[in-house]
Amino acid sequence: xxxxxxxxxKGKKIFVADYSGLHAIKPEEKKEMLDAIKKAEDLSATLSxxxxxxxxxxxxxxxxxxxDALKKFAAFxxxxxxxxxxxxxxxxxxxxxxLNAVNLFSGGKMRSFDTIELxxxxxxx
Length: 125
Prior knowledge:
The chain is of the alpha/beta class. It has one domain: Transcription Regulator spoIIAA (2-Layer Sandwich). It has four helices and five strands, in the order ββαβαβαβα. The protein has a five-stranded mixed β-sheet. Helix 1 runs parallel beside helix 2 and helix 2 packs across helix 3.
């Protein structure tokens, strides 16, 4: 599965970063997460227009290193001013608190949704 990809919904292009099912406590999955974050950052560096971002974190578990990489990525995209809208799917409880920390650190306004379809609908509005 391509972890970083473009999808289309209702005629809108959406930049998808999919970390679903990955667990940072497993070295090979942690590497896959870090590689995907790096790929997302590299691709974002080539963007010059406002972009719709969707992160799928369903059944994923991060550690401090992953959270640090995600915070840096979020800060990069916000500093570059390429975020039109951004959202995340698959987080709850403490993860929502961590999302607030990422938003605070990066200056972002990422929203959380329970399903990918709801997230795509909001992005395509």
